[in-house]
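Exercise 7.
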Amino acid sequence: MTWKGNPEQRQRRACLSGRAGAIAALLLCVPGTGAWAQAPAEDAEAASEAQLEDLLEAAQRAPSSAGAERLFAEEDLAPHFTQGALAQAKLAYERRRYGQARALLARAPQSPPVRYLAALAALNAGELAVAAEEFSALAERYPPLADRCRALAGGARERLKQWDAALAAYEQVAPPALAFPEARFGMSRVLERKGDRVGAARVLEPLTGDAPGRGREAARLQALMRTCDLARARLDYQAEHHALLEVWATSPLSPEAERARARLKGLPLPLKWRVRRAEALLALHLNAQALAQLEPVLPQLALPEPLACRAHLAYGTALRKERQHRSAVRALAPVAEACRDAELRPRALYLLGYSQSVVAPRDAVETYAALARDYPAHALADDALFFAAQVQLQLGDAPGALARFEETARRYPEGNFAAEALFKAFLVQFERKAWGPALASLAAIEALPAGTLPDEEPWRARYWEARSLEAQGQLPEALAAYGRVARERPGTYYGMLACGRLEAREVPCGLTPGTASGSAPPQGRGAEQGGTGLPLGTLAEEPHFWAAVELHRLRLPGAAEELLAIEPRRQSPAGARLLFRLAQTLGLEKTAGALARSTALTSSLVGAPDASSRQVWEATYPLAFQPLVERYGKAARVDAHLVYALMREESRFNPRARSSTGALGLTQLMPATASAVARAHRVGQVTAEHLLQPYKNLQLGSLYLGSLLRDFEGEPTYAIASYNAGPGAVRRWLRTRPAAELDEWVELIPFEETRAYVKRVQASYATYRILYARPAPAQPERTRRGAAGSGRSALLAP
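Solution. The predicted structure, written as tokens, is:
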């Protein structure tokens, strides 16, 4: 990290401006106030008052309403124990020489970090009374680690059998502290030792609910299993049975579920719990297992009973996910007819319409229309209108489809299909060469309510406005419009297409692959304005952030866990940038990449990568599994950057990824497809477990992608579409529109999933080439769809 700053100047500014917050101002600005963070000192030499105050400023950071204005600099992460007796004490602690560590720490000024390490040394040395007293005192003086101190104090009191004192300490630990689950388990143990098994179970109830949070599922299952044990101990077999059923039904893949099933042997499995287990299996995309769970249950349930509606809906959903659409229609139609629950029936209609669109499209139009008519305020209403229009268009009813697309945008201007509906209306008019209405539809997209449009939508409209101008012979205006899209959104699908159209006319698009450069880290607003660090933003009020910072400064475990507990989507742009930088500092590269994709940092991913944004770009588009990608991409004659792009969009680089249809691993291969590829290339037998191993998955995924590229004469667009929908579907679509240019062909792919997938992979491919690759060599013209001017994206690697 390269943040700069003068701690004394920051302290002085904070005191004079009042930005330190009430508590911090009291401690920072009043002479002689005690500090809880210790500067490095030589042996027994006392730190100066200025050093103590500077450390206090860096570590305490009491939340204040002015947090958005405060800056966080590199020295705010400086380790506490680096010199003299403090460094010796930390080394002794790490070597488990706890007595020596405490003796050295006793010679240093007694700041909270020093006392905390000394208390940990006492705890590990078995000096429980000393540790309990010290942690209890520190809980009031060490805000970032207050809850950890309380939990540790409770643990020491519990081991001393000081039951009431242990309970009091544990009870002070509250959510969202990471120590909260362990504190609750501690309370439960203590209450059981006191003979209160009912209370011991009751204090676990906050852990057994469905509240979200990192690590909550493990704590929930542990709490449920302990609840089972407590119920058995007090001979409450009904409560034990209920808790066992909840574990078995709601977490079917967990080891706890296996143990619960063994304890349930010979006991009844009520229908509602069997349905709930099937729903959990369905959520895990274990569709076949969900079907097997439901098949013996359905004959015992009669529609329209609520449980029967849930069971039949789950069964139909599993069939749809398995692409057994005729069977799905037979399962879902009775649910849509008989069940009247205002949340369940719209879902049934929506799923029914989807399967009907495959096997009975005219029925799908009616089903979607019924959903929109009967539930106009439901979240799926605009989706239903849009898909009804889509099916009408596929049936050849262009006027009816056009009217329904326009109705979708008119009735639901803030819905997630408003822009897509207007664009579909544009395509209908574009094919008719009705330029006035076509351009009016594009203008309507940009006129939709602010904040409702994904970033891609206005750029798609601008690209197709340029295409319309070019089609009308207005070349200068078209080239200017292409240039704007290419310059301002080079790493997007439409920026890539615009660049292709410009290069076809021998007009430079402004950025060629491999030209993005710069290695300087991104700078925060404060640094850009000559300040001394990065703004805290919303992190000023985030306790997990301050705990992570302090644990990192102590060089103790737990900083990463605290950082991962922060909800990234709630952060301001300033907070998101600082969170990203801290994740990189802690070595959490995957977390940094996820933060870049899911926070306000996405605003950095516009325009061309430069020195100020490159780290965010590279975290968002990493060279994951690079040795394997390079090796297997080269062997399959596939550009490695296309493999990265496909892997990014398929699995987000998760080797254990599993799709709703059963695709597995980094490149999301179906087991049957992987086996066929393995046989064709004689690389041995393949099991599902093999596909969850990066080396085997990337080998087979690269070979399959290479074969698709060869099948389609090296055109990535068709290969990518085939990877998602199958080569048979792509050949069928090519026969349907043999004269369509490539960009138009993509927009007219009948499957929304495949259409969006092609754009995402192509956009990622363009970005990888911009970030990392050399410019591609010249390519001879091929066919109308593959020639220059079609917006072709990239080439096979030599």
